[in-house]
Automatic annotation (TrEMBL), chain A:
It comes from Liquorilactobacillus vini DSM 20605. InterPro entries: AAA+_ATPase (IPR003593), ClpA/B (IPR001270), DNA_pol3_clamp-load_cplx_C (IPR008921), DNA_pol_III_gamma-3 (IPR022754), DNA_pol_III_sug/sutau_N (IPR012763), DNA_Rep/Repair_Clamp_Loader (IPR050238), HLD_clamp_pol_III_gamma_tau (IPR045085), P-loop_NTPase (IPR027417). Its EC number is 2.7.7.7. Pfam families: DNA_pol3_delta2, DNA_pol3_gamma3, DNAX_ATPase_lid. Keywords: ATP-binding, DNA replication, DNA-directed DNA polymerase, Metal-binding, Nucleotide-binding, Nucleotidyltransferase, Transferase, Zinc. This is DNA-directed DNA polymerase. Belongs to the DnaX/STICHEL family.
TrEMBL record, chain C:
Residues 136-249 form the DNA polymerase III beta sliding clamp central domain. GO terms for biological process: DNA strand elongation involved in DNA replication. It is found in: Cytoplasm. Confers DNA tethering and processivity to DNA polymerases and other proteins. Acts as a clamp, forming a ring around DNA (a reaction catalyzed by the clamp-loading complex) which diffuses in an ATP-independent manner freely and bidirectionally along dsDNA. Initially characterized for its ability to contact the catalytic subunit of DNA polymerase III (Pol III), a complex, multichain enzyme responsible for most of the replicative synthesis in bacteria; Pol III exhibits 3'-5' exonuclease proofreading activity. The keyword Cell membrane does not apply. This is Beta sliding clamp. InterPro entries: DNA_clamp_sf, DNA_polIII_beta, DNA_polIII_beta_C, DNA_polIII_beta_cen, DNA_polIII_beta_N. Residues 252-375 form the DNA polymerase III beta sliding clamp C-terminal domain. GO terms for molecular function: 3'-5' exonuclease activity; DNA binding; DNA-directed DNA polymerase activity. Keywords: Cytoplasm, DNA replication, DNA-binding, DNA-directed DNA polymerase, Nucleotidyltransferase, Transferase. It holds the Pfam family DNA_pol3_beta_2. Its main location: cytoplasm.
Amino acid sequence: MGYRALYRVWRPQQFTDLVGQQLITQTLKNAIAAKQTSHAYLFTGPRGTGKTSAAKIFAKAINCHFQKNGEPCNQCEICRAITEGRLNDVIEIDAASNNSVDEIRDIREKVKYAPTQADYKIYIIDEVHMLSTGAFNALLKTLEEPPANVIFILATTEPYKIPATIISRTQRFDFHRINDQTLIKRMEYILKQEKVTFDPAALEVIAKAAAGGMRDALSMLDQVLSFGNHQATLKDALLVTGSVAQEQLAAYLRAVFSQQAAPAFQQIQQLLADGKDPNQLFEGLIDYCRQLLLQQTVFKDQKGESNQVLISLAKKIPTKVIYQALDILSQEQQAMRFATHQEVYLDVATVKLCQLKSNDRAATTAPAEAEITKLQTEVMTLKKQLDQLVQRSKPEEKPVHEPKKVSVTKQTKIQPNLKAIYTVLGSASRESLDELKDVWQDLMAKLSVTQRAIMNVSQPVAASQTAAVISFQYAFLFEKAVENQQLQTQLVTDLASLLGRQVKLTFLPQEQWPQIRKNYLKEYQHNKAESTKSVTKQAVSAKNSQALAAQKIWGKDAEKLVEFKDD
Amino acid sequence: MGKKDIIARQPRLTAYFADLIQHKKLVHAYLLTGPAGSGKHELALWVAAGLFCQHPVKGQPCGKCGECQRIFSGNHPDVIDLLPAGNSIKVEQTRFLKSEFNSSGVESRQKIIIIENAEKMTASAANSLLKFIEEPSGQITVFLLVASLNQLLPTIVSRCQLFKMQLPSEEQRIQTYQQEGLNTLLAGLTVDIQTARQLADEKTVLELSKRLTQWFLKILNNEWLALVDVQVKFMPLITNKDEQNLFIQLLELFSKDLLRCAIGTKMVYFQDQALQFKQRLTKYSLTKQLTAVELLLNQPRLQQENINFQNLLEALTLQLIKCYHG
Amino acid sequence: MKFSIKRTAFIQRLTNVQRTIASKTTIPILTGIKLTLTNEKLILTGSDSDISIEAAIIKSDDNAQLEIEETGATVLPARFFSEIIKKLPGDTFSLNTFENQQTQILAGKSIFKVNGISAEEYPHLPEIEISQKITLAADLLKKVINQTVIAASNQESRPILTGVHLTIYQGQLTAVATDSHRLSQRKIPLDINDLNYDVIVPSRSLIELARMLPDSSEKVELRISENQMLCFFDQTVFYSRLLEGNYPDTAQLIPNNSETELEVNANDFLAAIDRASLLSHEGNYNIVKLTLDPKQQLAKIYGNSPEVGTINEVLNFESLTGKSLEISFNPDYMKDALHSFGQTTVKINFTQPLRPFTLTPSENQSNFIQLITPVRTF
């Protein structure tokens, strides 16, 4: 085999090599140089931050006879023996497998034996949080009355599991996560020593993924090198760390923030197919959003070198939206933790993110609210007028209606009001439809039983702010609804009370809906195409838009007129 | 488990490891992650065979020689395979492992240690392995195999090189399963076609999924009988933790399909009733449909909180009815 | 494979091999016993992967009456096989293996059929060139083992110390063991000069080997490969795996100067220590104190248990020179060390109260040394 992992080859052998923990290493060096060491130390901190390395360097420095300024010489027999782990007086105990009371008692007894070769006997107890309560108590005794020339170094990643009585008898050093810059610097140093070419961007990706752990960083670097035939490329770094390239994150966010669900989904699919992990995607997206926020707030006015994509995206998206996006992302990431099919949560997040901006616009456009209240009052007055109207016309209408109905059924089928439908389609939006769908069930609940019998098979298929197209599963119910004036009035008033605005309803049978929509699209495109071509056609479309405008002005009445005409 | 098979399934990783074997650049610890049936164990054995094979071709094992055969039959004394004893890998087992870490091989110095389901190591077992995984003496390569990284100690992960098994995409899987005459739902449950066949034969999964769709249709129709379904239809088929997990997985797949429905694409796992769902669901707004999906997707988390499973599903039923029918 | 053999001779070999076969193992084939039949002999092999034993029965052995009909090899389930052989009727039995590894065992009127496994599947034990051998007397090897394994550690925390460090260098074999509180080192001259080895053998294996070695000066052969140590004796090959890692540099531990020197009869001193430890075992710390006063020519041993009482004993000694000294140590270590010397006088060399002291036989001081670390009592 003969290949040794980088983190093993480049394990720090003196305090200076132990990067990212200057405060700690300086304190320890001073203590050794001044011969003022404690008899017990507690080293805590996340994995790969140098706890065990520091402990071993400490063991060397305090026992080395050629120690300079608290640094071991690493040349003498004692230093070498400690480095190779074969000095009897430096006892490394892994508390996980020696965690019983008996085993700690054994230490307590053996502590009394004088060192065989070195000046100090050093006990390095790793993963000390794994000791049982009994074992901690046994250890406590030893820490209380330590024999001279014995030093305990306890190391753990989980300090909160250490009893306070132990902590209070030790000098505690908290090792911190190593920041990205320090990790990168160390990797650069190692790569230069190993004479390996590298892409700085690759190191950045690795540093980010290592999350403050030097060993993590070097393990990943090793893997990148093994892929890249002894050179560190960004591509391999992304592959090894499973990180997602900044451009891909940006592309995804650009898609969702402009409500383009399709490309966003495609992006997700591609990333998952490349073997990216949903969790890392979430991490990446959250980090990118964080960068956007930073760009908007902290770095607003500086940084020429920063990447343009980020800056342009940061300019485009309102801060509030980014906050909301962060909420959605972290919420889904949380929910995902215990799931087997984590990619679903990504999909959910995508859909939610795509909805963001529109909601936001509705919420932020303050004038709209005033408009709504104004409209509401208007509606109320109109409604009153209408009610009066309906009541007055009731007695006469009934007889008039019946023959008509007969004649209608005898005649060919009632045709849907195409013009009205086209009008709706002209200004239809997904949000309006959603809004309508949300209240549809409530609307149904307000109807009488007979009315509900007609409307039960209906559903909104398109809607604008002011009008909607309702489709009926069965043609005869559609006809019934078209004829039932009272029902229509009821629907419109109820809807107004639910939505806070007037919405005109146009009915159609479901079977015709696909065709009508198709025709509309064709005509719409046709119009569009034509309008660019010839002036005459332009006039026509102008006329069209005039008609639309007129309808908009006339509102409900116009609609009614049209319907009656059709009747 | 032929050797050809693993090369076809993991072309990238087999090529990578063959190269390392050839140039003697294997490091001391690898972590392979991927769902059951993704070929982790086969890959680890394949690498072991590559190391020991008498006639390797560019780091690839021949698969025929005595060494290869002994490795694949589990009889090679220097290829050690550790499986959880019962539900977890306990300290006693890691003791044995540690003695293996410290001694030379039986036949040569080269050794391979494979720890299957490494996430099942108890905390103390995992902790006690740390030192040995970090600095093994001798020519040892350790393969830790896990389904998901989440459950593994970060201190273990940072000592290993991490590899994710390549998986066929959902589409490819569905296609293959369809060609094999298997229900597409199974493609969501396992990447291993053998397991899929087994599941199809056992019928529980398909029966559960059928009942699941019926239950959901009732909810959409605002039928309160859906609530009774939980006790009458589901619980008899969900008697242990494994079946609970299975059902939770079905819910996840189902919500995946519901989401597809909401954004206007085709349902793929629950194809049989797809049309009925589509008809009933289109009248709901996207927001409402999303809320329902999220209710379903909340279940994996809730399941972890030791709530009685039946209560969990009944609560879900009520929440869904409320969501759809106000 | 086809042969017939006398049952008693077979059982004797089988028992030797079977002691290594573990009932629980991760490698299924190791629950089996391998039979190999060549034109000259029948070889039985058993292994628990740490220790493997091959025992041969040769054709020329009159006690065995081995009749070889057809050579071959197979692996049979050890437990069943040995039960079967032990319960067979008659003095001899014959064994016949067919192509599909099915094996027929015939004795008198009973026929057993046992399913075997292909011998190809069985671990291949290393073969080492015969030229690389080290020859020494069985009883000497046994002594070397027994004198050193006592100091080996039985703790897992430093696995390397559970072994005995064997170095063969310039015609000398050095065996050292230490648990980091005591050390035992034995050197013996060899009749070869050109071989150099440096290996660590698990003490468990060595203890097992010592148990099997004959108590005679019969020659045994040691051979060492990169991963196993082999020992040949009496038609038996004993294999042990080696430990991997760096053994402490023990040469550094042994002090080469001395401030105080005590010479005592090992047996007398052992008896005195034994008496003192009666009380020390009762206390929290298992310690006895030795006071040496060369000026007054006085050596005293003191044991104490706060609950029970104390013991004071003035020692008989051959000589006492150097500075006066007070030193405390674990009496059990001292007892183990003294035991290993047998009936002889030993020289104990002290430097300082807190530095390890050594025990050597008065004659031939360089061949055998025991080192004990004192205990701090202040």
